[in-house]
Write a structure and sequence with these properties.
heterodimer, A: 492 residues, mainly alpha, MetI-like fold, 3 domains, two-stranded antiparallel ribbon, 17 helices, 2 strands, 1% strand, B: 265 residues, alpha/beta, Rossmann fold, 6-stranded mixed beta sheet, 11 helices, 25% strand, globular, binds adenosine-5'-diphosphate, binds magnesium ion, membrane (chain B), ATP hydrolysis activity (chain B)
């Protein structure tokens, strides 16, 4: 069950497919008496057909087996564990992870017969021997755990053996079947077409299923959170004060306020600059300027956000504090909404500008010609014809930028700090752009880092926060895509 | 034939509106118009015909300086409208284009309401002082483009929602609304079906009462139906220019004859 045998299985199937290609191709040629023009399809298609019928079912089965087997064995072994094997301070899940580790250790120790009597001295010796091969266990091995580990190992061995048999059978069966039907009238081209379609659908479903899986696991943890913590408090409370000793106040509003405020500042910076840059580049700049300026702006998009964060921390933050906040008496912190918003805005400029640039460019030249032909100047044309035509697309671009801003973490931690907004200190502090503030994403990270178990509401709140954020950005993205699509239809 | 002669006599008396002398146009290294000289008359429909790529559109776009919007285009020579040199540095190309309207091959209504489409030019040039005046200009232009009855109940709906033929007439109304003296049309019917084409042709015939109309067309029949004068372009040169009747019945140049009988094109 280590990686090597599995790799062998994959190689065998691949080799079979390669052989299948050659065999299918030559059988087709033979059935046409060597005259490839008598074949229904090009000779290669017969080869691909055999290769695909070897690969697709075999690998599909393999993937499915690898997914299901561990879950199934876990369930079976877990049912074997008597309740007495689970100490008061532990859970069945923790014991199962011990079982898996012991099974893994036994595997490394190699074939070793189980002794007739499993007594304390044997178990102690086993713990030492496992420790020597790198499998350290936190406590003494329970006899029940040892027995469970043995059956775990057995089941895995049997399961893997069956998997080999099934996968090879599928591969050979596919080979035989497709090889038999290969003759000059067989429509290999159409069959390959369908085979490729299946592969593509498979890829698409993996993408969709993964998303679904993520959402489901978030939903599951969120439900656990709301079992411990009232949802009214979470959504409508006004204070964020987690306390790992209990009695936390975990309201999303202060965090959501920070998120929206910082994102708003970022958009106020990014939208005008990005849009004007796009208008200049697409309508006024000569080709030479455009060839240099467009990539230069797009470089901004390639800078990792942590670098922006450092820029905020070291340069922008102190600058805003020394030149604005202190002289105006608005605060003395260098971490502030303005710092994070400004830097995040800079990060978003290339998003807005390059999307808008594409959209402005896709406004048909004929509209511009029409406007010039009526005696409009260039800026009149841009303002009255190009912009209205491009507006829905630009709104879409801005919404996409907004959902980027809402999900941003690094810049906020370094630029605006990690202190949640405090509603009880009054409106003045809430809207002061030179106050430190933090966002939903930052709090998700801070609730999950450190020594925490995944059972207290203080940790589980991260999932509720994450899910809420996900719903918001999903909504924005859907809206943006819908608007952009409507806009596209207008010109096609 | 009698008919034709009567038109000839009528056109003879008309005065010159546009006079081009020794016009050359280069796009980078491409020499698109080669020493073209032509006199276009007022209150007349003049057709430009010739095979694709011979420079008809290019020459047409010289008349309202639309080529200025193309970076690589270079124009030399002398073009006068009513005796005034339109390439004189004193002339503002933007103002010129209000006086020389243009209708394009593909209908290109703006993504605005029908009303706003027609009101676009008058608003930019400040032709109407009051809303009532603007309404009047819009109605008059739509009537002149023979589309008023079809759209009068839906002026606030988008112009892009009209059929192809209606869109093209809307574009003509839009061009007419700025009260131009010359109307340039670059294959205005090539995207239209035969019925819409007939409507636009009828319209062109009426427009010549007030304007000098220059139309580029690929259809010999259309040139014969709507124009009084025809210019035949070939490979960037003006091969032959004269009464439409003459060009189609007794062309002087062998290239003209080959083209209208379908041997080059
Ligand atoms: N914007 C342009 N840039 C470069 N070359 C052009 C451009 N427009 C037209 N041309 C060239 O000028 C010549 C004349 O084109 P055009 O006036 O469009 O011909 P027509 O309208 O008679 O079909 C063609 O060779 C064409 O390739
Ligand atoms: Mg043309």
């Amino acid at each position: 069950m280590t990686a090597v045998p599995l790799l062998w299985l994959i190689l065998i199937v691949l080799a079979l497919a390669a052989v299948g290609y050659v065999a299918g191709r030559s059988r087709a040629m033979a059935s046409a008496g060597g005259n490839s023009r008598a074949l229904h399809s090009l000779p290669g298609y017969y080869g691909y057909n055999v290769a695909l019928t070897v690969l697709t079912p075999a690998f599909g089965l393999l993937a499915l087996w690898l997914l299901i087997q561990p879950v199934w064995i876990d369930m079976r072994v877990s049912a074997l564990l008597p309740d007495s094997a689970i100490a008061d301070s532990s859970t069945r899940d923790l014991v199962m992870s011990d079982v898996r580790r012991v099974a893994e250790g036994l595997q490394i120790l190699g074939a070793e017969g189980a002794p007739d009597v499993v007594d304390t001295s044997f178990l102690e010796g086993l713990r030492d021997r496992l420790g020597n091969v790198g499998v350290a266990l936190g406590s003494e091995i329970d006899a029940a755990v040892y027995r469970a580990a043995l059956s775990y190992q057995d089941m895995t061995r049997v399961g893997t053996g069956l998997m080999w048999a099934a996968v090879l059978l599928a591969a050979v069966g596919g080979f035989a079947l497709s090889y038999m039907v290969t003759n000059k009238d067989f429509r290999a081209r159409n069959t390959v077409e369908r085979g490729i379609l299946i592969v593509l659908i498979g890829a698409a479903s993996i993408a969709i299923l993964t998303t679904l899986g993520i959402v489901l696991s978030m939903l599951f943890e969120t439900r656990n959170f709301f079992a411990d913590y009232p949802w009214q408090e979470f959504f409508f409370g006004t204070n964020w004060a987690p306390d790992f000793r209990g009695n936390s106040e975990l309201a999303i509003l202060p965090l959501l306020w920070g998120t929206l405020y910082i994102s708003l500042v970022a958009l106020i910076v990014a939208v005008p600059i990005g849009l004007f840059a796009a208008i200049y580049l697409s309508e006024y700049a000569s080709n030479r300027v455009r060839a240099v300026a467009k990539p230069a702006i797009e470089i901004l998009a390639g800078i990792p956000t942590i670098v922006y964060g450092l820029f905020a921390l070291i340069t922008i933050g102190p600058m805003l504090r020394d030149y604005f906040a202190l002289p105006l008496g608005l605060g003395e912190s260098s971490s502030s909404v303005a710092t994070a918003g400004l830097v995040m805005g800079i990060m978003l400029i290339p998003f807005v500008s390059s999307l808008s640039d594409d959209i402005i460019n896709s406004v048909p030249q004929s509209l511009r010609d029409g406007s010039y032909g009526l005696g409009a100047t260039q800026s009149e044309t841009i303002r009255q014809v190009v912009m209205p035509a491009a507006l829905p697309g630009i709104v879409g671009a801005i919404l996409l930028a907004a959902s980027r801003a809402i999900g941003e973490t690094m810049i906020v931690v370094l630029g605006a700090g990690a202190a949640a907004a405090q509603f009880n200190r009054g409106l003045g502090e809430l809207v002061n752009p030179f106050e430190a503030m933090t966002t939903v994403t930052v709090k998700i990270v801070s609730q999950l880092t450190g020594d925490t178990d995944f059972a207290s509401p203080e940790t589980l709140v991260a999932f509720a926060l994450g899910l809420t954020l996900f719903v918001i950005t999903l909504g924005l993205n859907v809206l943006a895509l819908w608007i952009v699509r409507r806009y596209r239809e207008q010109y096609e | 034939m009698n008919d034709m002669r009567r038109i000839e006599r009528a056109t003879d008396m008309k005065e010159t509106k546009i006079s081009a002398r020794h016009v050359n146009v280069h796009y980078g290294d491409t020499h698109a118009i080669k020493d073209v000289s032509v006199e276009i008359q007022d209150k007349t429909v003049t057709a430009f015909i010739g095979p694709s790529g011979c420079g008809k559109s290019t020459f047409l776009r010289c008349i309202n300086r639309m080529n200025d919007t193309i970076d690589i285009a270079r124009i030399d020579g002398d073009i006068r409208i009513d005796g005034e040199d339109i390439y004189d540095p004193k002339v503002d190309p933007v103002q010129l284009r209000a006086k020389v309207g243009m209708v394009f091959q593909k209908p290109n209504p703006f993504p605005k309401s029908i009303f706003d489409n027609v009101a676009y030019g008058p608003r930019i040039h400040g032709l109407a002082r009051t809303k009532a005046e603007l309404d009047e200009i819009v109605e008059k232009s739509l009537r002149r483009a023979a589309i008023w009855d079809e759209v009068k109940d839906r002026l606030q709906q988008p112009g892009t929602g009209l059929s192809g033929g209606q869109q093209q007439r809307l574009c003509i109304a839009r061009a007419v609304a700025t009260e131009p003296e010359v109307l340039l049309m670059d294959e205005p019917c090539s995207a239209l079906d035969p019925i819409a084409t007939a409507q636009v042709e009828e319209l062109i015939d009426e427009l010549k009462q007030n304007y000098s109309v220059v139309i580029v067309t690929h259809s010999m029949q259309q040139a014969a139906r709507v124009s009084q004068k025809t210019a035949f372009f070939h490979l960037g040169t003006l091969v032959e220019y004269g009464e439409t009747g003459d060009i189609f019945t007794k062309p002087e140049d062998s290239r003209t004859e080959s083209y209208i009988t379908g041997r080059i094109g």
